[in-house]
Amino acid sequence: MTMDFDFDLLVELTEACGVPGYEDDVRAIVQREFADAVDEVRTDAMGNVIGTIHGDSEYSVAIAAHMDEIGFMVRHVTDDGFVQLDPLGGFDARVLRAQRVTIHTDDGDLTGVIGSVPPHTLTEEQQSKKDEVKNVYVDIGRDGDAVSELVSVGDLATLEQTTVEMGDCVTGKALDDRVCLFSMLEAAKRIEDPAVTIHFAATVQEEVGLRGATALGVDIDPDLAIALDVTVANDVPIIGSEADAVTKLGEGTAIKLKDSSVITSPKVHKRLKTVAEDEQINYQLEVLPAGGTDTAGFQNTHGAKPVGAISIPTRYLHTVTETANCDDIAATIDLLSAFLATETGTHDYML
């Protein structure tokens, strides 16, 4: 299919490595892309990047998407040279079997594999043992002495995967949340002479507790905040129930009503709906039973704020095969751009 956006930039963002607290490679891309799109770029002590377009009024809007991906930190190297990991972010350990990983050391990257032994060689007790990250061992193909010289406690590790087109979709690692970070960057490039000041925030450490956004809620102190994140698209046969799908691929961007961290401001999500309908942008409503986003980080950290959220429906979250529909990505960029272009600072979002 024909991409209505910069696919090469999306690939660069998703294939970059940046676990919570160590988003350096992603931050460099964001800074580069902001350079010609905004009036001012700054980075704070946590590593959040804020690109500001100054508007005609003091009213300010914060747009946030997080840079970090789930990953690991090395916690131990065995005498035999196997590497044990501590998770950075929420992992379903079942998806780690037989995965390839990259261990990021001071002297360069190393390829490793999380092995999976043949099931017929396991005892019944071993077969019934619950998968846990603490029981994962990474094999980097070297003996113990070599590994101890190459790998140190505190080194980082990420799952290895490329991003590719797949039919009407894109699939790869770290679409959570790089596909939304990408959408924010694309929207920033479209904004000219806004009526309000817009702070585009690429946040850190969302996967370990919305930490970057919470700090920015104080530092930026916006009048309105909109966060972008992926959301569950469980529209697959194993789920069965349409109610449990949350969203569906190909049916448009998602306007969040709630998740377990936030109930979005009714007047904000109603205006998002109005803009989508006026601009004929396909959308669906999101009621997410579990999970949180940067939206919550802005809602009440420096006094009560009106907040909203736009989500990109994504299958297979927190795996290396995260999958989003290209039309939904384009719709997200369109909705965010149209919302900001029509934000005057005079809309009443108070209850």
Automatic annotation (TrEMBL):
What name does the UniProt record give this protein?
M42 family metallopeptidase
Which Gene3D superfamilies does its entry note?
Answer: Peptidase M42, domain 2, Zn peptidases
Provide the alphabetized UniProt keywords.
Aminopeptidase, Hydrolase, Metal-binding, Protease
Please give the cofactor(s) recorded in the UniProt entry for this protein.
Answer: a divalent metal cation
Family to which this protein belongs: Belongs to the peptidase M42 family.
* Cofactor mode of binding and number, as noted: Binds 2 divalent metal cations per subunit.
Record the organism.
Natronocalculus amylovorans
Binding-site list for Zn(2+) 2: D176, E207, H318
Q: Which residues form the signal peptide?
A: none
Per the record's keyword annotation, is Metal-binding included, yes or no?
Answer: yes
What Gene Ontology terms for biological process does this UniProt record contain?
proteolysis
Residues at the active site: E206 (proton acceptor)
**Residues engaged in binding Zn(2+) 1:** H66, D176, D229
Show the GO MF annotations. aminopeptidase activity; metal ion binding
